[in-house]
Protein backbone atom coordinates (compact mmCIF):
# COMPACT_ATOMS: atom_id res chain seq x y z
CA UNK A 1 0.00 0.00 0.00
CA UNK A 2 2.85 2.32 1.02
CA UNK A 3 4.65 1.54 -2.23
CA UNK A 4 1.58 2.42 -4.29
CA UNK A 5 1.18 5.77 -2.48
CA UNK A 6 4.83 6.66 -3.07
CA UNK A 7 4.50 5.70 -6.73
CA UNK A 8 1.43 7.93 -7.06
CA UNK A 9 3.26 10.92 -5.52
CA UNK A 10 6.25 10.50 -7.83
CA UNK A 11 4.02 10.16 -10.90
CA UNK A 12 2.05 13.26 -9.95
CA UNK A 13 5.26 15.22 -9.48
CA UNK A 14 6.63 14.07 -12.84
CA UNK A 15 3.37 14.89 -14.58
CA UNK A 16 3.24 18.24 -12.83
CA UNK A 17 6.73 19.18 -13.99
CA UNK A 18 5.86 17.86 -17.41
CA UNK A 19 2.90 20.22 -17.64
CA UNK A 20 5.08 23.21 -16.72
CA UNK A 21 7.63 22.24 -19.32
CA UNK A 22 4.90 21.95 -21.92
CA UNK A 23 3.80 25.51 -21.26
CA UNK A 24 7.28 26.58 -22.34
CA UNK A 25 9.14 29.83 -22.52
CA UNK A 26 9.85 32.26 -25.28
CA UNK A 27 11.64 35.53 -25.86
CA UNK A 28 10.54 39.10 -26.44
CA UNK A 29 12.71 41.49 -28.37
CA UNK A 30 11.89 45.09 -27.57
CA UNK A 31 13.00 47.09 -30.57
CA UNK A 32 13.40 50.59 -29.21
CA UNK A 33 12.94 53.47 -31.62
CA UNK A 34 13.16 57.21 -31.13
CA UNK A 35 10.82 59.56 -32.91
CA UNK A 36 9.54 63.10 -32.86
CA UNK A 37 6.06 63.72 -34.17
CA UNK A 38 5.98 60.23 -35.61
CA UNK A 39 9.16 60.65 -37.64
CA UNK A 40 12.44 58.90 -36.83
CA UNK A 41 14.74 61.10 -34.78
CA UNK A 42 17.49 62.71 -36.86
CA UNK A 43 20.49 63.82 -34.86
CA UNK A 44 22.00 67.29 -35.13
CA UNK A 45 19.16 68.83 -37.14
CA UNK A 46 17.71 72.04 -35.71
CA UNK A 47 14.18 71.23 -36.76
CA UNK A 48 12.20 70.11 -33.72
CA UNK A 49 9.84 72.25 -31.68
CA UNK A 50 8.71 71.30 -28.20
CA UNK A 51 5.51 72.28 -26.40
CA UNK A 52 7.13 75.40 -24.94
CA UNK A 53 8.03 76.51 -28.44
CA UNK A 54 11.78 75.86 -28.23
CA UNK A 55 13.26 75.10 -31.62
CA UNK A 56 15.90 72.47 -30.92
CA UNK A 57 18.18 69.73 -32.19
CA UNK A 58 19.37 66.54 -30.52
CA UNK A 59 23.00 65.51 -30.49
CA UNK A 60 22.86 62.88 -27.77
CA UNK A 61 20.15 60.66 -26.31
CA UNK A 62 21.31 58.02 -23.85
CA UNK A 63 19.53 56.26 -21.01
CA UNK A 64 18.97 52.98 -19.21
CA UNK A 65 15.97 50.71 -19.23
CA UNK A 66 15.66 48.38 -16.25
CA UNK A 67 13.30 46.39 -14.04
CA UNK A 68 11.10 45.35 -16.92
CA UNK A 69 7.93 43.66 -15.74
CA UNK A 70 5.32 42.08 -18.02
CA UNK A 71 1.69 41.99 -16.96
CA UNK A 72 -0.46 39.00 -17.92
CA UNK A 73 -4.02 39.29 -19.16
CA UNK A 74 -5.23 38.27 -15.72
CA UNK A 75 -3.20 41.03 -14.12
CA UNK A 76 -0.47 39.00 -12.53
CA UNK A 77 3.03 40.29 -13.04
CA UNK A 78 5.98 38.51 -14.61
CA UNK A 79 9.32 40.10 -13.66
CA UNK A 80 12.13 39.71 -16.19
CA UNK A 81 15.78 39.16 -15.48
CA UNK A 82 16.92 42.07 -17.64
CA UNK A 83 19.88 43.93 -16.18
CA UNK A 84 19.96 47.71 -16.67
CA UNK A 85 20.34 48.11 -20.40
CA UNK A 86 22.02 51.04 -22.08
CA UNK A 87 20.19 52.64 -24.96
CA UNK A 88 21.59 55.30 -27.28
CA UNK A 89 20.15 57.07 -30.27
CA UNK A 90 23.52 56.72 -31.96
CA UNK A 91 23.37 52.93 -31.82
CA UNK A 92 22.39 51.43 -35.15
CA UNK A 93 19.76 49.38 -33.37
CA UNK A 94 18.53 49.21 -29.80
CA UNK A 95 17.15 45.72 -29.32
CA UNK A 96 16.42 44.70 -25.74
CA UNK A 97 16.17 40.95 -25.25
CA UNK A 98 13.74 39.72 -22.62
CA UNK A 99 14.62 36.06 -22.23
CA UNK A 100 12.95 33.04 -20.68
CA UNK A 101 9.50 34.59 -20.71
CA UNK A 102 6.67 32.17 -19.89
CA UNK A 103 4.29 31.61 -22.79
CA UNK A 104 1.13 33.62 -22.66
CA UNK A 105 -0.41 36.90 -23.56
CA UNK A 106 0.82 40.09 -21.97
CA UNK A 107 -1.15 43.30 -21.96
CA UNK A 108 1.21 45.74 -20.24
CA UNK A 109 4.92 46.43 -19.90
CA UNK A 110 6.32 48.29 -16.91
CA UNK A 111 9.89 49.50 -16.54
CA UNK A 112 12.19 52.12 -15.12
CA UNK A 113 14.16 54.71 -17.04
CA UNK A 114 17.29 54.55 -14.96
CA UNK A 115 17.73 51.93 -12.28
CA UNK A 116 16.72 51.29 -8.72
CA UNK A 117 18.91 52.11 -5.76
CA UNK A 118 20.05 48.49 -5.42
CA UNK A 119 21.81 48.75 -8.75
CA UNK A 120 22.56 52.44 -8.87
CA UNK A 121 25.95 52.31 -7.25
CA UNK A 122 29.23 53.61 -8.65
CA UNK A 123 30.84 50.94 -10.81
CA UNK A 124 27.90 48.66 -10.05
CA UNK A 125 27.56 47.83 -13.73
CA UNK A 126 30.26 46.24 -15.90
CA UNK A 127 33.02 48.71 -16.75
CA UNK A 128 32.35 48.94 -20.46
CA UNK A 129 32.80 52.30 -22.20
CA UNK A 130 29.05 53.02 -22.24
CA UNK A 131 28.55 52.45 -18.55
CA UNK A 132 31.69 54.39 -17.70
CA UNK A 133 30.48 57.33 -19.75
CA UNK A 134 27.16 57.21 -17.92
CA UNK A 135 28.87 57.32 -14.52
CA UNK A 136 27.50 59.77 -11.96
CA UNK A 137 30.23 61.05 -9.65
CA UNK A 138 30.30 59.99 -6.01
CA UNK A 139 30.57 63.67 -5.12
CA UNK A 140 27.06 64.06 -6.48
CA UNK A 141 25.56 60.91 -5.09
CA UNK A 142 27.25 58.20 -7.15
CA UNK A 143 25.83 55.61 -9.50
CA UNK A 144 24.90 56.39 -13.08
CA UNK A 145 23.22 58.97 -15.23
CA UNK A 146 19.73 57.66 -15.86
CA UNK A 147 19.08 59.86 -18.85
CA UNK A 148 20.98 62.27 -21.07
CA UNK A 149 19.40 64.44 -23.73
CA UNK A 150 21.71 66.99 -25.28
CA UNK A 151 21.59 69.28 -28.23
CA UNK A 152 21.18 72.89 -29.22
CA UNK A 153 18.24 75.25 -29.23
CA UNK A 154 17.38 78.68 -30.45
CA UNK A 155 17.92 81.05 -27.56
CA UNK A 156 16.95 84.74 -27.68
CA UNK A 157 20.62 85.66 -27.27
CA UNK A 158 22.13 82.90 -29.31
CA UNK A 159 20.78 81.11 -32.35
CA UNK A 160 22.64 77.95 -31.38
CA UNK A 161 22.68 77.53 -27.63
CA UNK A 162 23.53 74.20 -26.03
CA UNK A 163 21.36 72.29 -23.62
CA UNK A 164 22.15 69.26 -21.50
CA UNK A 165 19.21 67.64 -19.79
CA UNK A 166 20.54 64.96 -17.47
CA UNK A 167 18.94 62.98 -14.68
CA UNK A 168 20.50 60.76 -12.08
CA UNK A 169 20.29 59.79 -8.39
CA UNK A 170 17.23 57.88 -7.25
CA UNK A 171 15.00 60.80 -6.29
CA UNK A 172 15.01 61.55 -10.03
CA UNK A 173 14.23 58.01 -11.15
CA UNK A 174 11.53 57.66 -13.77
CA UNK A 175 9.00 54.91 -13.26
CA UNK A 176 7.34 54.72 -16.63
CA UNK A 177 3.57 54.35 -16.68
CA UNK A 178 2.45 50.88 -17.76
CA UNK A 179 2.58 50.68 -21.53
CA UNK A 180 -0.44 48.97 -23.04
CA UNK A 181 0.40 46.12 -25.39
CA UNK A 182 -0.81 42.83 -26.74
CA UNK A 183 2.18 40.54 -26.82
CA UNK A 184 1.74 36.84 -27.33
CA UNK A 185 4.75 34.78 -26.28
CA UNK A 186 4.98 31.25 -27.60
CA UNK A 187 7.22 28.42 -26.61
CA UNK A 188 10.74 28.65 -28.12
CA UNK A 189 9.72 31.61 -30.29
CA UNK A 190 10.84 35.24 -30.52
CA UNK A 191 8.25 37.95 -30.46
CA UNK A 192 9.45 41.30 -31.75
CA UNK A 193 7.77 44.42 -30.42
CA UNK A 194 8.50 48.04 -31.31
CA UNK A 195 8.67 50.29 -28.27
CA UNK A 196 8.72 53.85 -29.49
CA UNK A 197 9.84 56.95 -27.58
CA UNK A 198 8.55 60.36 -28.58
CA UNK A 199 11.47 62.57 -27.59
CA UNK A 200 9.28 65.68 -27.45
CA UNK A 201 7.34 64.07 -24.61
CA UNK A 202 10.24 64.77 -22.28
CA UNK A 203 9.30 68.44 -22.46
CA UNK A 204 5.53 68.05 -22.24
CA UNK A 205 3.64 66.47 -19.40
CA UNK A 206 2.95 66.93 -16.57
CA UNK A 207 5.39 69.85 -16.73
CA UNK A 208 5.83 71.96 -19.81
CA UNK A 209 9.60 72.28 -19.81
CA UNK A 210 10.94 75.44 -21.37
CA UNK A 211 14.66 75.39 -22.11
CA UNK A 212 14.74 79.17 -21.90
CA UNK A 213 12.76 79.74 -18.71
CA UNK A 214 13.20 76.46 -16.82
CA UNK A 215 16.81 75.83 -17.71
CA UNK A 216 19.09 74.27 -20.23
CA UNK A 217 21.33 72.44 -17.79
CA UNK A 218 19.74 70.14 -15.23
CA UNK A 219 22.42 67.93 -13.75
CA UNK A 220 22.54 68.19 -9.98
CA UNK A 221 19.61 70.62 -9.91
CA UNK A 222 17.03 68.51 -8.08
CA UNK A 223 13.83 70.41 -9.01
CA UNK A 224 14.72 70.38 -12.71
CA UNK A 225 15.73 66.73 -12.69
CA UNK A 226 12.46 65.89 -10.94
CA UNK A 227 10.47 67.69 -13.60
CA UNK A 228 12.23 65.79 -16.35
CA UNK A 229 11.87 62.50 -14.47
CA UNK A 230 8.12 63.17 -14.14
CA UNK A 231 7.85 63.95 -17.82
CA UNK A 232 9.58 60.67 -18.61
CA UNK A 233 6.64 58.69 -17.27
CA UNK A 234 4.76 58.80 -20.55
CA UNK A 235 7.33 58.92 -23.31
CA UNK A 236 6.97 55.36 -24.67
CA UNK A 237 4.23 53.52 -26.45
CA UNK A 238 3.98 50.26 -28.31
CA UNK A 239 3.76 50.71 -32.01
CA UNK B 1 38.20 -21.61 -15.99
CA UNK B 2 38.54 -18.30 -14.14
CA UNK B 3 42.35 -18.49 -14.02
CA UNK B 4 42.43 -19.19 -17.76
CA UNK B 5 40.41 -16.02 -18.42
CA UNK B 6 42.80 -14.04 -16.23
CA UNK B 7 45.80 -15.28 -18.13
CA UNK B 8 44.15 -14.36 -21.43
CA UNK B 9 43.29 -10.87 -20.13
CA UNK B 10 46.81 -10.17 -18.89
CA UNK B 11 48.19 -11.38 -22.17
CA UNK B 12 45.94 -9.00 -24.09
CA UNK B 13 47.03 -6.03 -21.97
CA UNK B 14 50.71 -6.88 -22.39
CA UNK B 15 50.18 -7.12 -26.13
CA UNK B 16 48.44 -3.75 -26.33
CA UNK B 17 51.13 -2.01 -24.24
CA UNK B 18 53.80 -3.58 -26.40
CA UNK B 19 52.04 -2.36 -29.52
CA UNK B 20 51.81 1.12 -28.02
CA UNK B 21 55.56 1.24 -27.35
CA UNK B 22 56.22 -0.17 -30.74
CA UNK B 23 54.17 2.63 -32.38
CA UNK B 24 56.04 5.30 -30.41
CA UNK B 25 59.35 3.96 -31.52
CA UNK B 26 58.59 3.72 -35.19
CA UNK B 27 56.52 6.94 -35.56
CA UNK B 28 57.89 9.76 -33.37
CA UNK B 29 55.70 12.89 -33.22
CA UNK B 30 56.64 15.77 -35.48
CA UNK B 31 58.23 18.75 -33.75
CA UNK B 32 55.67 21.40 -32.79
CA UNK B 33 55.80 24.44 -35.04
CA UNK B 34 57.26 27.49 -33.30
CA UNK B 35 54.41 29.42 -31.75
CA UNK B 36 54.48 32.72 -29.91
CA UNK B 37 53.79 32.59 -26.20
CA UNK B 38 50.39 34.13 -25.49
CA UNK B 39 50.42 37.15 -23.19
CA UNK B 40 47.50 38.17 -21.02
CA UNK B 41 47.18 41.88 -20.56
CA UNK B 42 46.65 43.15 -17.03
CA UNK B 43 43.11 44.43 -16.48
CA UNK B 44 43.07 47.30 -13.99
CA UNK B 45 40.01 47.66 -11.81
CA UNK B 46 37.22 49.75 -13.33
CA UNK B 47 38.95 50.05 -16.68
CA UNK B 48 36.96 48.94 -19.70
CA UNK B 49 38.11 45.68 -21.28
CA UNK B 50 40.99 46.11 -23.72
CA UNK B 51 40.23 46.01 -27.41
CA UNK B 52 40.86 42.67 -29.01
CA UNK B 53 43.04 42.54 -32.11
CA UNK B 54 42.42 39.13 -33.59
CA UNK B 55 45.00 39.66 -36.33
CA UNK B 56 47.65 40.64 -33.85
CA UNK B 57 47.18 38.91 -30.50
CA UNK B 58 49.61 39.78 -27.75
CA UNK B 59 52.58 37.49 -27.30
CA UNK B 60 55.65 37.60 -25.10
CA UNK B 61 57.86 37.62 -28.17
CA UNK B 62 55.84 40.25 -30.02
CA UNK B 63 55.95 42.59 -27.02
CA UNK B 64 59.66 42.02 -26.58
CA UNK B 65 60.26 42.79 -30.25
CA UNK B 66 58.07 45.87 -30.07
CA UNK B 67 59.73 47.12 -26.92
CA UNK B 68 63.15 46.92 -28.54
CA UNK B 69 62.05 48.47 -31.82
CA UNK B 70 60.30 51.31 -29.96
CA UNK B 71 63.68 52.44 -28.65
CA UNK B 72 65.93 51.48 -31.55
CA UNK B 73 67.13 53.94 -34.21
CA UNK B 74 67.47 50.96 -36.51
CA UNK B 75 64.10 51.96 -37.99
CA UNK B 76 65.24 55.41 -39.05
CA UNK B 77 67.87 57.04 -41.18
CA UNK B 78 68.17 60.05 -38.93
CA UNK B 79 68.74 58.52 -35.52
CA UNK B 80 65.14 59.00 -34.44
CA UNK B 81 63.28 56.42 -32.41
CA UNK B 82 59.72 56.28 -31.16
CA UNK B 83 61.08 57.54 -27.87
CA UNK B 84 62.33 60.70 -29.55
CA UNK B 85 58.74 61.95 -29.45
CA UNK B 86 57.34 59.63 -26.81
CA UNK B 87 59.53 60.20 -23.79
CA UNK B 88 58.70 58.08 -20.78
CA UNK B 89 59.31 60.91 -18.29
CA UNK B 90 56.62 62.83 -20.14
CA UNK B 91 54.19 59.94 -20.07
CA UNK B 92 55.47 58.83 -23.47
CA UNK B 93 54.80 62.24 -24.90
CA UNK B 94 57.10 65.11 -25.85
CA UNK B 95 57.28 68.83 -26.16
CA UNK B 96 55.41 70.25 -29.12
CA UNK B 97 55.84 68.69 -32.54
CA UNK B 98 55.87 71.14 -35.45
CA UNK B 99 55.29 69.64 -38.89
CA UNK B 100 57.10 70.93 -41.98
CA UNK B 101 53.89 72.74 -42.94
CA UNK B 102 53.91 74.53 -39.61
CA UNK B 103 51.13 72.55 -37.93
CA UNK B 104 51.69 72.47 -34.20
CA UNK B 105 50.73 69.29 -32.38
CA UNK B 106 50.90 68.33 -28.77
CA UNK B 107 52.31 64.82 -29.07
CA UNK B 108 49.64 62.34 -27.89
CA UNK B 109 50.64 60.29 -24.88
CA UNK B 110 51.10 56.54 -25.09
CA UNK B 111 49.05 55.69 -22.03
CA UNK B 112 46.37 53.05 -21.72
CA UNK B 113 46.10 52.85 -25.51
CA UNK B 114 44.86 49.26 -25.26
CA UNK B 115 41.55 50.58 -23.99
CA UNK B 116 40.98 53.19 -26.69
CA UNK B 117 39.01 53.09 -29.93
CA UNK B 118 40.50 56.11 -31.70
CA UNK B 119 44.01 57.44 -31.99
CA UNK B 120 45.47 60.86 -32.81
CA UNK B 121 43.72 64.08 -31.89
CA UNK B 122 41.23 63.91 -34.73
CA UNK B 123 40.78 60.14 -34.51
CA UNK B 124 42.34 59.57 -37.90
CA UNK B 125 43.46 56.11 -36.81
CA UNK B 126 41.04 53.49 -35.54
CA UNK B 127 43.29 50.47 -35.59
CA UNK B 128 46.21 50.70 -33.23
CA UNK B 129 48.18 48.18 -35.26
CA UNK B 130 48.53 50.73 -38.03
CA UNK B 131 49.28 53.66 -35.75
CA UNK B 132 53.01 53.74 -36.26
CA UNK B 133 53.11 52.88 -39.96
CA UNK B 134 53.15 56.58 -40.74
CA UNK B 135 56.34 57.05 -38.79
CA UNK B 136 58.49 55.63 -41.58
CA UNK B 137 57.79 58.78 -43.60
CA UNK B 138 60.37 61.53 -44.11
CA UNK B 139 58.79 63.75 -41.45
CA UNK B 140 59.70 61.25 -38.78
CA UNK B 141 62.05 58.28 -39.34
CA UNK B 142 62.78 58.99 -42.99
CA UNK B 143 63.35 55.25 -43.28
CA UNK B 144 65.52 53.94 -46.12
CA UNK B 145 64.02 50.70 -47.30
CA UNK B 146 67.24 48.95 -48.28
CA UNK B 147 69.03 49.91 -45.08
CA UNK B 148 66.14 48.69 -42.98
CA UNK B 149 66.24 45.20 -44.53
CA UNK B 150 70.01 44.98 -44.18
CA UNK B 151 70.15 46.15 -40.58
CA UNK B 152 67.30 44.03 -39.35
CA UNK B 153 68.51 40.87 -41.09
CA UNK B 154 72.02 41.34 -39.73
CA UNK B 155 70.88 42.09 -36.20
CA UNK B 156 71.77 39.47 -33.58
CA UNK B 157 68.26 39.15 -32.07
CA UNK B 158 65.64 40.66 -34.39
CA UNK B 159 65.44 37.83 -36.96
CA UNK B 160 64.79 35.35 -34.17
CA UNK B 161 62.15 37.56 -32.58
CA UNK B 162 60.39 38.10 -35.93
CA UNK B 163 60.37 34.35 -36.39
CA UNK B 164 59.04 33.64 -32.91
CA UNK B 165 56.53 36.48 -32.84
CA UNK B 166 55.13 36.27 -36.35
CA UNK B 167 56.59 33.16 -37.97
CA UNK B 168 58.71 35.24 -40.34
CA UNK B 169 61.49 32.91 -41.47
CA UNK B 170 63.44 35.45 -43.48
CA UNK B 171 62.94 39.18 -43.09
CA UNK B 172 64.54 39.77 -46.49
CA UNK B 173 61.76 37.88 -48.22
CA UNK B 174 59.02 40.15 -46.90
CA UNK B 175 57.62 42.91 -49.07
CA UNK B 176 58.43 46.36 -47.71
CA UNK B 177 54.81 46.90 -46.76
CA UNK B 178 54.68 43.56 -44.94
CA UNK B 179 57.88 44.36 -43.11
CA UNK B 180 56.49 47.70 -41.95
CA UNK B 181 53.27 45.98 -40.96
CA UNK B 182 55.06 43.46 -38.76
CA UNK B 183 57.11 46.23 -37.18
CA UNK B 184 53.91 48.19 -36.54
CA UNK B 185 52.27 45.07 -35.11
CA UNK B 186 55.14 44.51 -32.70
CA UNK B 187 55.24 48.13 -31.57
CA UNK B 188 51.48 48.09 -31.19
CA UNK B 189 51.75 45.04 -28.97
CA UNK B 190 54.29 46.79 -26.81
CA UNK B 191 52.25 49.99 -26.60
CA UNK B 192 49.23 48.03 -25.43
CA UNK B 193 51.21 47.03 -22.36
CA UNK B 194 51.80 50.66 -21.34
CA UNK B 195 49.22 50.76 -18.59
CA UNK B 196 49.11 53.55 -16.06
CA UNK B 197 46.89 52.82 -13.06
CA UNK B 198 49.06 53.54 -10.04
CA UNK B 199 48.68 57.28 -9.70
CA UNK B 200 48.30 59.01 -6.36
CA UNK B 201 44.59 59.11 -7.10
CA UNK B 202 44.52 55.34 -7.66
CA UNK B 203 46.40 54.89 -4.42
CA UNK B 204 43.90 57.14 -2.69
CA UNK B 205 41.05 55.03 -4.07
CA UNK B 206 42.82 51.95 -2.74
CA UNK B 207 43.23 53.53 0.68
CA UNK B 208 46.99 53.80 0.31
CA UNK B 209 47.38 57.56 -0.06
CA UNK B 210 45.83 60.43 1.82
CA UNK B 211 44.93 63.41 -0.34
CA UNK B 212 46.05 66.80 0.90
CA UNK B 213 43.34 69.32 1.69
CA UNK B 214 43.83 71.10 -1.64
CA UNK B 215 43.87 67.84 -3.60
CA UNK B 216 40.66 66.71 -1.92
CA UNK B 217 38.96 70.03 -2.59
CA UNK B 218 40.18 69.90 -6.17
CA UNK B 219 38.72 66.43 -6.54
CA UNK B 220 35.34 67.77 -5.42
CA UNK B 221 35.56 70.49 -8.06
CA UNK B 222 36.59 67.98 -10.71
CA UNK B 223 33.80 65.52 -9.94
CA UNK B 224 31.01 68.01 -9.42
CA UNK B 225 29.17 70.59 -11.45
CA UNK B 226 31.53 73.20 -10.03
CA UNK B 227 34.26 72.24 -12.47
CA UNK B 228 32.29 69.72 -14.54
CA UNK B 229 35.45 68.04 -15.77
CA UNK B 230 34.05 64.53 -15.28
CA UNK B 231 31.61 64.50 -18.17
CA UNK B 232 34.40 64.25 -20.73
CA UNK B 233 37.30 63.11 -18.56
CA UNK B 234 35.45 60.02 -17.40
CA UNK B 235 37.01 57.96 -14.62
CA UNK B 236 39.00 55.73 -14.56
CA UNK B 237 40.63 56.33 -17.95
CA UNK B 238 39.93 60.04 -17.50
CA UNK B 239 38.68 60.24 -21.05
CA UNK B 240 35.35 59.31 -22.57
CA UNK B 241 37.04 58.37 -25.83
CA UNK B 242 34.69 60.74 -27.67
CA UNK B 243 35.10 63.86 -29.78
CA UNK B 244 34.13 67.28 -28.48
CA UNK B 245 34.48 70.92 -29.37
CA UNK B 246 35.60 72.40 -26.05
CA UNK B 247 35.44 76.02 -27.21
CA UNK B 248 39.03 76.86 -28.02
CA UNK B 249 38.00 78.87 -31.07
CA UNK B 250 34.91 80.47 -32.54
CA UNK B 251 36.29 79.92 -36.06
CA UNK B 252 38.12 76.75 -37.05
CA UNK B 253 40.69 76.58 -39.81
CA UNK B 254 43.45 74.20 -40.90
CA UNK B 255 44.25 71.47 -38.39
CA UNK B 256 41.88 73.26 -36.01
CA UNK B 257 39.00 71.72 -37.92
CA UNK B 258 39.81 68.54 -36.05
CA UNK B 259 37.48 65.63 -36.61
CA UNK B 260 35.99 67.28 -39.69
CA UNK B 261 39.25 66.59 -41.54
CA UNK B 262 38.56 62.87 -41.08
CA UNK B 263 34.80 62.69 -41.56
CA UNK B 264 34.38 65.63 -43.98
CA UNK B 265 31.29 66.47 -41.95
CA UNK B 266 30.99 70.18 -41.01
CA UNK B 267 29.17 69.11 -37.84
CA UNK B 268 32.48 67.68 -36.67
CA UNK B 269 34.26 71.01 -37.07
CA UNK B 270 36.52 71.80 -34.14
CA UNK B 271 35.94 68.45 -32.44
CA UNK B 272 38.92 66.65 -30.93
CA UNK B 273 39.35 63.39 -29.06
CA UNK B 274 39.21 63.89 -25.31
CA UNK B 275 42.74 63.33 -24.04
CA UNK B 276 43.33 61.25 -20.94
CA UNK B 277 44.30 63.27 -17.91
CA UNK B 278 46.42 60.49 -16.50
CA UNK B 279 49.94 61.91 -15.99
CA UNK B 280 48.68 65.22 -17.32
CA UNK B 281 51.19 67.07 -15.15
CA UNK B 282 53.96 65.46 -17.17
CA UNK B 283 52.55 65.65 -20.67
CA UNK B 284 52.29 69.32 -21.55
CA UNK B 285 51.94 71.41 -23.58
CA UNK B 286 48.17 71.13 -23.62
CA UNK B 287 45.30 71.08 -26.12
CA UNK B 288 45.75 69.59 -29.58
CA UNK B 289 48.03 72.39 -30.68
CA UNK B 290 49.91 72.75 -27.43
CA UNK B 291 48.75 76.31 -26.96
CA UNK B 292 48.91 76.14 -23.19
CA UNK B 293 52.12 75.42 -21.35
CA UNK B 294 50.75 74.98 -17.86
CA UNK B 295 47.79 73.37 -16.16
CA UNK B 296 46.98 76.75 -14.63
CA UNK B 297 46.46 78.15 -18.12
CA UNK B 298 44.22 75.22 -19.02
CA UNK B 299 42.06 75.69 -15.94
CA UNK B 300 41.83 79.40 -16.62
CA UNK B 301 40.68 78.67 -20.16
CA UNK B 302 37.80 76.53 -18.91
CA UNK B 303 37.06 79.09 -16.22
CA UNK B 304 36.86 82.11 -18.46
CA UNK B 305 37.91 81.48 -22.02
CA UNK B 306 35.42 79.13 -23.70
CA UNK B 307 34.26 80.46 -27.05
CA UNK B 308 30.92 79.80 -28.69
CA UNK B 309 30.64 78.28 -32.14
CA UNK B 310 28.07 76.25 -34.01
CA UNK B 311 29.65 72.97 -32.92
CA UNK B 312 30.54 73.83 -29.33
CA UNK B 313 29.63 70.86 -27.16
CA UNK B 314 26.28 71.39 -25.41
CA UNK B 315 27.82 70.37 -22.12
CA UNK B 316 29.93 73.54 -22.20
CA UNK B 317 26.82 75.71 -21.80
CA UNK B 318 26.70 75.52 -18.07
CA UNK B 319 26.04 79.10 -17.20
CA UNK B 320 23.98 81.77 -18.87
CA UNK B 321 27.30 83.48 -19.45
CA UNK B 322 29.03 80.77 -21.41
CA UNK B 323 32.59 81.29 -20.40
CA UNK B 324 32.33 81.70 -16.67
CA UNK B 325 32.76 78.71 -14.39
CA UNK B 326 33.26 81.16 -11.57
CA UNK B 327 36.16 79.41 -9.87
CA UNK B 328 38.09 81.47 -7.34
CA UNK B 329 41.87 81.60 -7.45
CA UNK B 330 41.97 79.14 -4.57
CA UNK B 331 39.62 76.75 -6.33
CA UNK B 332 41.70 76.92 -9.49
CA UNK B 333 44.82 76.02 -7.50
CA UNK B 334 42.97 73.17 -5.85
CA UNK B 335 41.82 71.82 -9.18
CA UNK B 336 45.40 71.86 -10.44
CA UNK B 337 46.51 70.12 -7.24
CA UNK B 338 44.01 67.36 -7.93
CA UNK B 339 45.11 67.01 -11.55
CA UNK B 340 48.63 66.38 -10.30
CA UNK B 341 47.38 63.41 -8.27
CA UNK B 342 46.82 61.67 -11.58
CA UNK B 343 50.57 61.26 -11.94
CA UNK B 344 51.80 57.69 -11.84
CA UNK B 345 55.43 58.08 -10.76
CA UNK B 346 56.32 54.49 -11.52
CA UNK B 347 54.93 54.80 -15.03
CA UNK B 348 56.86 57.97 -15.88
CA UNK B 349 60.13 56.75 -14.40
CA UNK B 350 62.38 54.88 -16.86
Summarize the structure.
The complex is a heterodimer of chains A (239) and B (350). Chain A is an alpha+beta fold and 239 residues long. In chain A, 15% of the residues lie in helices and 41% in strands.
- Pick out the low-confidence regions of chain B: 12-25
Query: How big is the Rg of chain B?
Result: 27 Å
Distance between the first and last residues' Cα of chain A: 60 Å
* Strand composition percent of chain A: 35-45%
What share of the residues of chain A lie within helices?
Answer: 10-25%
Average pLDDT figure of chain B: 91
Largest interface chains and counts: A-B, 27 and 28 residues
Helix-strand pattern of chain B: HHHEEHHHHHEHEHH
Dominant shape of chain B: globular
Structure description:
The complex is a heterodimer of chains A (239) and B (350). Chain A has 239 residues and is α+β, with helices and mostly antiparallel strands. In chain A, strands 5, 6, 7, 9, 10, 11, 12 and 13 form an 8-stranded antiparallel β-sheet that branches. In chain A, strands 1, 2, 8, 14 and 15 form a 5-stranded mixed β-sheet that branches. In chain A, strands 3-4 form a two-stranded antiparallel ribbon. Chain A is 15% helix and 41% strand. Chain A has 3 helices and 15 strands. Chain A is globular and about 65 Å long. The longest helix of chain A is centred in the first third of the chain and has 22 residues. In chain A, strand 5 and strand 6 form a beta hairpin. With 350 residues, chain B is mainly α. Chain B contains 11 helices and 4 strands; from the N terminus they run αααββαααααβαβαα. In chain B, the strands form 2 sheets. Chain B has a two-stranded antiparallel ribbon. In chain B, strand 1 and strand 2 form a beta hairpin. In chain B, helix 2 packs across helix 6 and helix 8 crosses helix 11. The longest helix of chain B is centred in the N-terminal third of the chain and has 25 residues. The radius of gyration of chain B is 27 Å and the shape is globular. About 4% of the residues of chain B have low confidence.
Amino acid sequence: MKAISLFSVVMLAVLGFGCNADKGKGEIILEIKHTISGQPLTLNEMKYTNLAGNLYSVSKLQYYISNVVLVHEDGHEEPTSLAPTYISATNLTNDVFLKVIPSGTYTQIKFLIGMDSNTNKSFGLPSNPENLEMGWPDMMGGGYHFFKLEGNFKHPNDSNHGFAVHTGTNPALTTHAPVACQIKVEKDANTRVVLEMDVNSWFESPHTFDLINDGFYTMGIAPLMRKIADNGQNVFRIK
Amino acid sequence: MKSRQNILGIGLVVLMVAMGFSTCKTDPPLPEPERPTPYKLRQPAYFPPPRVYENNPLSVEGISLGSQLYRDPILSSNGMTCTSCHVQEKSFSAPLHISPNGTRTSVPVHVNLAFKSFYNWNGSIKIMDTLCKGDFEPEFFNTKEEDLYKRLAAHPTYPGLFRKAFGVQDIRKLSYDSLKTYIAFAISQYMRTLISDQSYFDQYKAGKYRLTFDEAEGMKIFFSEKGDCFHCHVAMLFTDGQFHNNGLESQHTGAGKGRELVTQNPKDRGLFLTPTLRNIEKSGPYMHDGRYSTLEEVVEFYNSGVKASSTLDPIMYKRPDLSRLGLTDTEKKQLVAFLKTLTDEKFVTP
